[in-house]
TrEMBL record:
Lineage top rank: taxon: Bacteria
Organism of provenance: Flavobacterium pokkalii
Name of the protein described by the UniProt record: Four helix bundle protein
Signal peptide coordinates: none
Species lineage: Bacteria, Pseudomonadati, Bacteroidota, Flavobacteriia, Flavobacteriales
SUPFAM superfamilies according to UniProt: IVS-encoded protein-like (SSF158446)
Amino acid sequence: MKSYKDLDIYTIGMELFYKTHTLSLQLPKYELYELGSQIRRSSDSVVINIVEGYGSRRYKNDFIKFLVYSHASNLETLNHIKKIINLYPNLSEEMKLLYEKYDLVGAKIFSFLKYIEEHWKI
């Protein structure tokens, strides 16, 4: 692994961030700076924490801490998606697909976190 860009959790997370960002802009105008802003920030935080963790990978505990933050941001994003599905039926089909993908990337982040905890050597 030469870069964080080699991590599946990063590449999938970035793809999901772009889709989430685009979809969030379809929310009603009054939601753009409320729920829309929250989901954009949490989805961005999923990947930003992977990058920051990778940057501090020399320190195992820091790497773990940022992966925990990434996983938590993923859970937050899932929660925002659930709210959008229930509040805005016109976006529900696309959001349901996003939900499934975020659920999968969350599992991958958790697995990677466990790997780092048990096997990471500098």
